[in-house]
Each structure stands twice: as structure tokens, then as C-alpha cells.
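Example 9 (inverse folding). The structure is encoded as follows.
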């Protein structure tokens, strides 16, 4: 067991102790919720699914004479999306008559409501949503907002995620940044007002002006005793909704975080995704190889065309010429030497006279070393016209680079 793992385990124990200490109870996990590397997450990599974590004990929200109590909730969370800059559906703090919500829908319903009960006053559900998807059917303002919902997915008030700084200027916060965020919900019974504040615990400053402030008496919507918890859902795109530490009190308080901020795990790579990555990489490599191959063949084709262009007419007329491109190319150093010297003047100088040619043809004399150079010249073309109709030569270059005549100059029609 590595020391890193041991410290992680110790940290996890501390976190668990810390939560139970403050909430005096534990969270009951349902649906997709579970732990990833010791961190509680409401959702898994499962798509179109929802997960919940509800406090196991029922909480008293009304006194014996039916008066609603004030309450405050603070929780720390991290949303790690599957795709950067693209949200899944989001999460919510929920107060519900039941411990967990069965028969809810995933996707845009966040695991709180379904199509049938959405908006029904008999739901008795209060929620503060952290919505990372813009659902026009619920009048969502954008794909990164905080909203207060009662009995349905259509928020009573909502605002883009962010906070007001000391100067009162609004500052954006991204819910899917993967950074730890803090949400505080205060309900003052005296003021019949709900304040919701989003903030970054990494900043020492706690916003004094809330993000959302709703004047609303909650007593008609609340039962005497209700359960509190969290819900989150995924759609076609996934996200991990880490629910770290939370506090709930029957009075107004804003607790401080006296723990260091841990690093939350990245979005897990699923088996199918890993296979997909391998496949895509292989395809990309294959495509790259194909591109390189076609570029190379195009290059050689162009070079070949360049050579073709300097082929003499006689070569074409006389059917298949026996000088392989490669041989000629090599023998003449890519024709650069000749072309560089201009006008084939040099070739003309060493052109064998007729007597020599006859000797060659009779096998008495050796072929001149620069035969290929000569072959290429227009003059030899003319010479060929005169003498060469029956001349059938095959010249190859051996590995040593010496020019040899493999097929003897068979017959000479003179
Ligand atoms: C209800 O009970 C609380 C204490 O439990 C008390 O403070 C409050 O005044 C009562 N309200 C009414 C209307 O009786
Ligand atoms: C479950 O929800 C569906 C709508 O999503 C609804 O039609 C159905 O009646 C519900 N079932 C129960 C038992 O509540
Ligand atoms: C609201 O829900 C209750 C109980 O589930 C049901 O009887 C009632 O018909 C619903 N109302 C509407 C408008 O759907
Ligand atoms: C906040 O984000 C919105 C869009 O996401 C952008 O239009 C606006 O300029 C941003 N404001 C600040 C202060 O960054
Ligand atoms: C809620 O916010 C308003 C300002 O928008 C403030 O006047 C009020 O005191 C706040 N209430 C609580 C309980 O913090």
C-alpha cells in the first residue's frame, strides 16, 4: 500500500467524519451516486441517468404551531464535465417529502421531477438548481445558471452563475470548471426571503450581495417534516457531480471551510471511450501514413513526369524504350549535370564518330561510358533514326554502378 493511498484513505476518513459531525447523520445514496477515488459523486459515467444522496434523518421545518423555521444550507461541490466547455444537465439541492425521489426522470429533470408531475403543487419539493444545460421548455436563461425551483423545473428566479465582488460588480463563475464551488442558501422566516450565493472558496472574500434574492414565504410549500439531499442527472453528455461537504442548520449561519481543498478526480475514461481513443489514434495514424504515401507518390510522379518530358520523340516512336527511368536518372544524376551544363554541348564533344560506332556494333570496341548521355541527345536521336531501327539495346546499371551491356548488340543492319 503506497503512502499516497494511505494518505488518501486517511483524508477520506477525515472527510466522512467531518460530514457526519456537522449533519449528525449520513447521506443515503441512490441511483448513479457513488464514490470515485474516495469522493462522493451524484452521477457516474452512465448516460441518461440520475443519482441522489439524501440525508437519512427527516428534518423538522415547522414548529408544533405550524410556524416555518429559518434555515441555512451550505455545500461544496465540483462538476467535472465529460467534454470541456460542454455541460451535461447539472445538480440541485432538494428538500422533499421523501428520502430520495423515485420515478423521477434524468436528463433535463435532474432526477427531481418527471414529465407527469412537473409543476404539480402536490409535489412539495423545493430545489436550488445548478443547471449546466439550456432547456428552452423550462425557460432556461443559459447553460450555466443558478435557479430557485418550487414544485417544477421552471425556475421562479434564476441568474447566470457568478457572484458580486466588493465593488458590487458581477463576476462570472463556470459551474463546469472542475473547480470547487460553494453554494449557500439562506431562508429567513422573519423576512420570508430566500438568498442564494455562489462563491469560490479559493477566494477569501465571501460575497455580501447574494446572487439570487427571492421574497417568498415557503410555509405553504413545506410539510412539517421533510428530507434534504442532492440530485444530479446526465443526458447524452456525462458529467461527474462531486458533492463534497455540506451543512444544514435550522437558523442562519454561513460556515467556514477549515479544510484544504483537495484535487478532485478527472472525468473517468470509460472502457468504450478508451477503445474509441485507440481506434481513433489508429485511424489517424493510418490516415497520416496514407497521406505521406500519396504525397510521396505524387512527388515521384512529378519527378517521373519531369523525366518523361525530356524523353525524345524517337524514344516514344520506337515503342518501349529499354532504359528504365531509374537507371537513366541515376546515371545522369537526375539529369542535373546535363541540364546544368546547358545545350548538351558536352555530349556533342564526346560523340563517337562513325568508325567508333561501327566498331562498337561489331563488338570490337567498348561502349563509351557516357552512352546514356549520348542516348539522350537529339543528335543521337537522329543517329538512331539512321542506324538504329534494328538496333536493340538493353542497358542496365549493376549495383556497382558500372554501365554494362547485358544484351549484346545483336544484329546490325547495315
Ligand atoms: C410558534 O412557536 C414558536 C416557538 O416554537 C414561537 O416562537 C412562535 O411565536 C409561535 N407562533 C405562533 C403564531 O404561535
Ligand atoms: C412514473 O413517471 C411517469 C412519467 O415519467 C408516469 O407516467 C408514471 O405514472 C409514474 N409512475 C408512478 C408510479 O408514479
Ligand atoms: C398532481 O398530483 C396529484 C397526485 O399525484 C394528482 O392527483 C393530480 O391530478 C396532479 N395534478 C395535475 C394537474 O397533474
Ligand atoms: C460573463 O459571461 C457571459 C457569457 O457567458 C459574457 O457575455 C459576459 O461578458 C461575462 N462577463 C464577465 C464580467 O466576464
Ligand atoms: C438577503 O439579501 C438581501 C439583499 O439582497 C439582504 O438585504 C438580506 O439581509 C439578506 N438576507 C439574509 C438572511 O442574509
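The amino acid assigned to each position is listed next.
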Amino acid at each position: 500500500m503506497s503512502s499516497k493511498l494511505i494518505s488518501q484513505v486517511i483524508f477520506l476518513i477525515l472527510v466522512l467524519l467531518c460530514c457526519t459531525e456537522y449533519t449528525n447523520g449520513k447521506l443515503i445514496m441512490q441511483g448513479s451516486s457513488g464514490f470515485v477515488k474516495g469522493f462522493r459523486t451524484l452521477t457516474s459515467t452512465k448516460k441518461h441517468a440520475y443519482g441522489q444522496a439524501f440525508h437519512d434523518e427527516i428534518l423538522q421545518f415547522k414548529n408544533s404551531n405550524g410556524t416555518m423555521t429559518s434555515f441555512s444550507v451550505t455545500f461544496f461541490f465540483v462538476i467535472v464535465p465529460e467534454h470541456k466547455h460542454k455541460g451535461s444537465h447539472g445538480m440541485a439541492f432538494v428538500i422533499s417529502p421523501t428520502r430520495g425521489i423515485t420515478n423521477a426522470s434524468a436528463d433535463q429533470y435532474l432526477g427531481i421531477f418527471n414529465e407527469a408531475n412537473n409543476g404539480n403543487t402536490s409535489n412539495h419539493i423545493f430545489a436550488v438548481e445548478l443547471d449546466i444545460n439550456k432547456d428552452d421548455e423550462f425557460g432556461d436563461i443559459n447553460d450555466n445558471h443558478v435557479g430557485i425551483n418550487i414544485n417544477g423545473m421552471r425556475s421562479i428566479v434564476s441568474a447566470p452563475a457568478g457572484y458580486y465582488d466588493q465593488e458590487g460588480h458581477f463576476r462570472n463563475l463556470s459551474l463546469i470548471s472542475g473547480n470547487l464551488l460553494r453554494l449557500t442558501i439562506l431562508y429567513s422566516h422573519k423576512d420570508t426571503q430566500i438568498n442564494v450565493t455562489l462563491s469560490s472558496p479559493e477566494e477569501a472574500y465571501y460575497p455580501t450581495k447574494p446572487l439570487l434574492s427571492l421574497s417568498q414565504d415557503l410555509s405553504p410549500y413545506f410539510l412539517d417534516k421533510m428530507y434534504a439531499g442532492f440530485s444530479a442527472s446526465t443526458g447524452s453528455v456525462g458529467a461527474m457531480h462531486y458533492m463534497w461537504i455540506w451543512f444544514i442548520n435550522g437558523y442562519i449561519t454561513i460556515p467556514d471551510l477549515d479544510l484544504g481543498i483537495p484535487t478532485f478526480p478527472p472525468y473517468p475514461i470509460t472502457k468504450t471511450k478508451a477503445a474509441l481513443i485507440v481506434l481513433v489514434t489508429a485511424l489517424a495514424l493510418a490516415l497520416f501514413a496514407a497521406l505521406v504515401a500519396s504525397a510521396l507518390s505524387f512527388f515521384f510522379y512529378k519527378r517521373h513526369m519531369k523525366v518523361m518530358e525530356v524523353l525524345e520523340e524517337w524514344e516514344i516512336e520506337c515503342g518501349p524504350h529499354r532504359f528504365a527511368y531509374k537507371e537513366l536518372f541515376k546515371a545522369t544524376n537526375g539529369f542535373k549535370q546535363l541540364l546544368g551544363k546547358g545545350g548538351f554541348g558536352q555530349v556533342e564533344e564526346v560523340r563517337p564518330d562513325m568508325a567508333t560506332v561501327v566498331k562498337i556494333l561489331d563488338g570490337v570496341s567498348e561502349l563509351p561510358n557516357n552512352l546514356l548521355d549520348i542516348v539522350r541527345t537529339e543528335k543521337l536521336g537522329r543517329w538512331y533514326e539512321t542506324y538504329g531501327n534494328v538496333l536493340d539495346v538493353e542497358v542496365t546499371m549493376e549495383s556497382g554502378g558500372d554501365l554494362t551491356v547485358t544484351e549484346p548488340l545483336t544484329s546490325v543492319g547495315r
